[in-house]
Write a structure and sequence with these properties.
The chain is built from four helices and nine strands. It has 203 residues and is an alpha+beta fold. It starts with a helix and ends in a 20-residue tail after the last strand.
Length: 203
């Protein structure tokens, strides 16, 4: 029975990805990307406009997990050679529906949160906040860098049987363009006590 259930899921998915084109396109766009200093280095925040077509919504409702990946990269221009890639990071979010609880679940690593509607889950997915992407000492304050961020639907994390038809169907090609901006680190300022003023530890 278990094998039969898996086969039925595979056939259902094949029908979902090979059906006639859906009513409206699916796409992602990036807004307001920014790097902010933190105690550990720098955190990334960004907003995403995520538009699902009817086929993706139906796939989630049928119990198929979607994997959304946020990619971040930081590069530095070099006049004598190709640009240097300073750092590259990715974070995966899993969006799924649980029929027994009638709840949508958004997960990232060991963290997860449940929502009564897809719109609620999508609203949280679209707001990236305080993602630690740069550690202390990884960038220099006298350098200017090019930061970039994007979000994409990662079909490679889905079961192999699902990938064949999905990769060939443009309705499953859900990805934003890279949003890029110049980034100059803030120089850390260390407070210097005036001569003759003792600290509390010295008293």
């Amino acid at each position: 029975m278990r094998c039969y259930g898996k086969l039925l899921s595979f056939l259902l998915f094949a029908l979902l990805v090979s059906a006639s084109p859906s009513g409206h396109a699916s796409d992602i766009s990036v807004r307001n990307p920014a790097l902010s200093p933190s105690e550990e280095g720098y955190t990334l925040s960004a907003d995403f406009n995520i538009n699902f077509n009817a086929r993706l919504e139906e796939a989630i409702a049928k119990g198929i997990t979607l994997y959304f990946v946020v990619d971040f990269e930081l590069t530095r221009s070099r006049w004598y050679w190709l640009d240097e890639q300073v750092i590259s990071r990715s974070q995966t979010f899993q969006l799924s529906y649980h029929a027994l609880t009638r709840q949508y679940r958004l997960s990232s690593g060991a963290l997860h949160q449940s929502f009564p509607t897809l719109d609620d889950a999508q609203r949280i997915l679209s707001r990236l906040r305080n993602w630690q992407v740069l550690d202390k000492g990884s960038v220099k304050s006298d350098q200017t860098y090019l930061a970039g961020v994007r979000m994409r639907l990662d079909l490679t994390q889905m079961p192999k049987t699902f990938q064949v038809n999905a990769l060939a169907n443009r309705d499953w090609n859900l990805s934003s363009d890279w949003a890029r901006w110049n980034f100059t680190p803030v120089e850390t300022v260390t407070a210097v006590m005036p001569p003759g003023v003792a600290t509390s530890e010295a008293k």
